[in-house]
Amino acid sequence: MRTERVSGYGQPDRREPKVVVGAAIIADGRVLACARSAPPEVAGRWEFPGGKVEPGESETAALVRECVEELAVRVEIGDRVGRDVRMAHGRSVLKVYTARLLHGDQPKALEHSELRWLTASELDSVAWLPADAPIVAALRPLLAAG
C-alpha cells in the first residue's frame, strides 16, 4: 500500500503509510474496549489500545510496548483481526491483532477515560472510532465462537 504525493519539483514522492497497531485483548469471551480521553474531537469514542510503530520496531513489538504504556499490562500477540484499515486520508494504516493478558495482569486506564470488557452481543453498545468499526465486525464471530 503506497500513497503518492508530488514533490516541489513535480516528481512523485512515494511514501509508505505509517502503521498504527491495535490490540484486541480477549479474555473469557470478551474483548477490551478503551474510551479515548483526548484529543477533544474523539474524546469518549471507543478504540482498541495501541499506537504507532516506531522506526526499526516490529508491529508486534510496538503492540507489546503500547499495551505496557497505555494499560500497564503484558500481552502475548496472536493473529491479525480483519483487514488493513486506511486512516488519516491514507497517511496511516491500522492493523489489529488479537492479544491475551499474561501473568494475571489487569488493565488500568492510564491513558483512557474508561475501560470495558464487551461480549459479542455488547460490541454495539459503545461508539467506536470509524477506523475500529471494521475490526469490530471481524471480531464478532471470533468472540461468539469463543
Automatic annotation (TrEMBL):
Its EC number is 3.6.1.55. It is an enzyme of class 3 (hydrolase). Residues 16-143 form the Nudix hydrolase domain. It catalyses: 8-oxo-dGTP + H2O = 8-oxo-dGMP + diphosphate + H(+). It comes from the Bacteria. Pfam families: NUDIX. GO terms for molecular function: hydrolase activity. Its cofactor is Mg(2+). PROSITE patterns: NUDIX. Keywords: DNA damage, DNA repair, DNA replication, Hydrolase, Magnesium, Metal-binding, Mutator protein. InterPro entries: MutT-like, Nudix_hydrolase, NUDIX_hydrolase-like_dom_sf, NUDIX_hydrolase_dom. The keyword Aminoacyl-tRNA synthetase does not apply. Belongs to the Nudix hydrolase family. This is 8-oxo-dGTP diphosphatase. It comes from Micromonospora sicca.
